[in-house]
Amino acid sequence: MHAEDDELEMIRRKKIAEAMKPSTQNKAEAISEPVNLTDADFSNFIKKHPNVIVDFWAAWCGPCRTFAPVFQRAAKEYAGKIVFGKLNVDENPATAEKFGVNGIPTVLAFKNGKLVERFVGAMPYPVFVRTLKEVYGL
Q1: Among 10, 13, 34, 58, whose CB has the most other CB atoms within 10 angstroms?
Q2: Is residue 18 part of a domain?
Q3: Which residues pair with 83 in a beta bridge?
Q4: Domain range holding 100?
Q5: Active site residue 103
């Protein structure tokens, strides 16, 4: 009986030590590129990450092409703090319709799966970054 008690104590100590180690979860979630989203995976994506910003765009849209490098750069700079997604509205009309996206580019900001802000139109990098900081308190 004594050997079992010793083994349980060793397991307990090991579990406590593991729990006290710094979490690597944030590093694993540091996505530095925008993730291409679809109608099928959009809902799970915004629920999976605490801070998500999504660019609704289309290939034929000039302002969308102008904004794409701004969005890409911000994804690199804010990796680990915000997860960036892109949704092509021509290929995924259900999600665009669900969120009332009528003009593109439209950028939607989510916190814990809930829509908290909406921006329509391309914006320069300094304006976009200021917006991110305001929305996410960075």
Answers
A1: 34
A2: no
A3: 52
A4: 29-136
A5: no
- Specify whether 120 is catalytic: no
Is residue 72 within 8 A of residue 86, CB to CB? The reply is no
Q: In a structure prediction context, what are the per-residue pLDDT tens digits for the chain, which is 138 residues long? A: 566 777 877 777 776 766 665 544 444 358 889 999 999 999 999 999 999 999 999 999 999 999 999 999 999 999 999 999 999 999 999 999 999 999 999 999 999 999 999 999 999 999 999 999 999 988
How far is Cα 59 from Cα 52, in angstroms, rounded to an integer? 22
- Number of compact structural domains in the chain: 1
Residue 11 lies in a domain: no
Among 46, 52, 64, 74, the active-site one is 64
123 in a structural domain: yes
CA dist., res. 122 & res. 66, Å (int): 7
